[in-house]
Every structure is written in structure tokens, then in C-alpha cells.
């Protein structure tokens, strides 16, 4: 009996010692990882800081009118803003955080250019190649420059490319810095209702923004990153086959390009929770307007509403005649695409 008691006591002591030391070791490993990540982020953060840039939104009093009745009743949120002055001409739920879908990729592009050069080469991983659509079908082992990746990210909204960019930046810095960098950049920009937990814009409790924050981010991206501004205004980009990768045909899914006068991008999105989303920049008679629509029920409604908001904005600011984009005009454009929904 005494032998059994001694054996049991010894076993208990052994278990307690194991738990104690494993706990200490476990905590040490975790603390070590946190310290390492913090050190890396201290090196990354200066690259994300906002320099020589100021912009704010000025909320104006605007009454709902018959012209914007449908979008007001049905959209989750929207805003149309003077690009230069920051004056908000029309808005709904401008500061409410909502799912934004692939509008997230605007920040993905910004942070990528903060942390890498446009001619840096990224290699496709198996994980990136298996990303869910929308995707361009990258193949493991292929190599693309960051500029080529940004073409695919911003035009075709490629989720596989977004993952590839994140992986490439994380690998470059030897630490998972990319998502943290996206959120730090949002803080530096003063985006108070924005959070990111993936580079694609997949639905999740920690991936959201507001129409006001999307205006602020888009305006910053278009002003401070000439490459982004040049890419988003393109209707199509060919990446020809070369020794590093196959040919890619990249179509811009912005339905207002070539339909609404002088539209210059910016980005569209689509998920179950976000619905259809868009940011559009247009210029008429020397005035530039940015509009955001969140929570449209279809691509057609998304583009009709964005065009309507642009019409209202240009009419209010300059008394310009409304373009009056119609369904037939948009469907003709959509028919040039391989698919739309």
C-alpha cells in the first residue's frame, strides 16, 4: 500500500512539474514570438506613415430628393464627395462600419507598395494558387512582378493574387506583418471605422469599413500612388506569356468605364454579406467626384446607383446635365465581359 501511495505521489509531482515547466516554456515561446513581431513592426511602421498629406471630409446639409430615392431606400450606405474639397454632397450611413468585400484590395495595394518595389518579383505558392474565386489561375512556381500582381488585383479583383502579395511581403520581412500593416495604415490615415483581417475582403467579423473611410482611403491611394491611379482607369490589361508566367487577360469589372463620361476607376466588390460594392472616380468640367456604394443587391443596381450619385453631384456642384445611364447601356458593356452577376 505504501509503495502505491509513494508511486501515486511521485506521479502527481511529475505531472505538476511537467505542467509547470511546459507552461513556462510555452509562455516563453509566445512572448518571444510577440517580441519578434513587435520588433519587425517597428521597422515596418515608418514605411506606412503618412507624409505631406492632409484631407478631411466636410459634411454638408443635403436633403433626400426624388432623384436619389431608390438608392437611399435600398443601399446599405453611400457617399458622393468632391475629390478636391472633401465636401460631402450626398450620403447615407456614411460612418457606419459595414462589410466592403473587395474594396479591401485598395488597402492591399497601398500597403504592398509601401513595403515593396513595383519591380520586385513574387513567386506563386500552392496555397495562393488554391484561393477561391475570383482568381486569374496563377500556377505554383510562376513568378510575377508586384506591378503585374497589382494589375490583376485591382482590375480582375484576383483573390489568388491578393494571397500571393500577402505571402510575399510576410516572407520578405520574415514575419506575418501584412495584415497588421493594413490595420496600422488605416490608423495612420485616421480611418476610425475600418478593420482588416484578410487581403481579399472575405466576409468576417474583423473585415469592415465605412463609406467615409473608403472615400478617404481611395482619395489617398489615387493621390499618393501614381501606379494605382494608372491601373484602375484601364479597361483591360494583357500580361503576355514570358519565361516567368503564362498569358493573363485582365478585365476591369467596373461597369461604368466607357459608359459614364471620364470615369477613372476605382474598385468593385462582391460577397454574400457585403452585397455589391463600388468606389468610382469621375471627372467632368474640371470637377472630380468620388462615390461609394455599399450593399447593392446586384451589379446592375450597383452601377446604376453609382451613376445616379455622380449625376446628382455634378448637377449640384456645376449645374451639369445628368448623363442618365440606363440598364441597356450597362448590359451592353457587361456583354463584353466573360461573365457578370
From TrEMBL:
GO molecular function: serine-type D-Ala-D-Ala carboxypeptidase activity
Biological process according to GO: cell wall organization; peptidoglycan biosynthetic process; proteolysis; regulation of cell shape
Database matches in InterPro entries: Beta-lactam/transpept-like, Peptidase_S11, Peptidase_S11_N
Positions of the Peptidase S11 D-alanyl-D-alanine carboxypeptidase A N-terminal domain: 72-297
Binding site for substrate: 267
Highest taxon of the lineage: Bacteria
Keyword match Flavoprotein: no
Active site residues according to the UniProt entry: 102, 105, 157
Alphabetized UniProt keyword annotations: Cell shape, Cell wall biogenesis/degradation, Hydrolase, Peptidoglycan synthesis, Signal
Record flagged with keyword Signal: yes
Gene3D superfamilies: DD-peptidase/beta-lactamase superfamily
Family: Belongs to the peptidase S11 family.
Protein name: Peptidase S11 D-alanyl-D-alanine carboxypeptidase A N-terminal domain-containing protein
Organism encoding this protein: Candidatus Gottesmanbacteria bacterium RIFCSPHIGHO2_01_FULL_40_15
Amino acid at each position: 500500500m505504501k509503495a502505491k501511495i509513494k508511486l501515486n505521489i511521485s506521479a502527481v509531482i511529475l505531472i505538476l512539474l511537467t505542467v509547470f515547466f511546459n507552461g513556462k516554456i510555452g509562455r516563453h515561446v509566445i512572448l518571444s514570438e510577440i517580441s519578434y513581431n513587435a520588433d519587425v513592426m517597428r521597422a515596418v511602421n515608418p514605411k506606412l506613415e503618412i507624409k505631406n498629406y492632409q484631407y478631411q471630409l466636410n459634411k454638408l446639409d443635403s436633403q433626400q430628393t426624388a432623384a436619389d430615392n431608390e438608392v437611399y431606400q435600398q443601399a446599405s450606405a453611400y457617399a458622393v464627395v468632391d475629390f478636391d474639397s472633401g465636401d460631402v454632397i450626398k450620403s447615407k450611413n456614411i460612418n457606419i462600419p459595414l462589410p466592403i468585400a473587395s474594396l479591401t484590395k485598395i488597402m492591399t495595394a497601398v500597403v504592398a507598395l509601401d513595403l515593396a518595389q513595383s519591380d520586385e518579383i513574387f513567386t506563386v505558392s500552392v496555397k495562393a494558387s488554391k484561393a477561391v474565386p475570383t482568381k486569374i489561375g496563377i500556377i505554383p512556381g510562376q513568378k510575377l512582378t508586384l506591378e503585374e500582381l497589382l494589375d490583376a488585383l485591382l482590375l480582375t479583383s484576383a483573390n489568388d493574387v491578393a494571397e500571393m502579395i500577402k505571402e510575399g511581403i510576410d516572407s520578405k520581412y520574415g514575419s506575418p506583418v501584412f495584415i497588421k500593416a493594413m490595420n496600422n495604415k488605416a490608423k495612420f490615415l485616421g480611418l476610425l471605422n475600418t478593420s482588416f483581417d484578410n487581403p481579399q475582403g472575405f466576409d468576417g467579423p474583423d473585415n469592415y469599413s465605412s463609406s467615409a473611410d473608403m472615400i478617404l482611403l481611395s482619395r489617398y491611394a489615387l493621390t499618393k500612388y501614381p501606379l494605382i491611379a494608372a491601373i484602375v482607369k484601364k479597361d483591360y490589361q494583357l500580361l503576355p506569356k514570358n519565361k516567368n508566367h503564362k498569358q493573363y487577360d485582365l478585365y476591369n469589372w467596373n461597369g461604368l468605364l466607357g459608359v459614364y463620361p471620364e470615369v477613372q476607376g476605382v474598385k468593385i466588390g462582391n460577397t454574400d454579406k457585403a452585397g455589391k460594392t463600388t468606389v468610382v472616380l469621375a471627372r467632368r468640367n474640371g470637377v472630380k467626384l468620388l462615390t461609394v456604394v455599399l450593399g447593392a443587391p446586384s451589379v446592375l443596381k450597383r452601377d446604376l446607383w453609382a451613376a445616379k450619385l455622380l449625376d446628382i453631384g455634378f448637377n449640384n456642384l456645376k449645374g451639369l446635365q445628368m448623363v442618365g445611364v440606363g440598364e441597356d447601356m450597362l448590359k451592353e458593356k457587361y456583354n463584353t465581359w466573360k461573365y457578370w452577376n
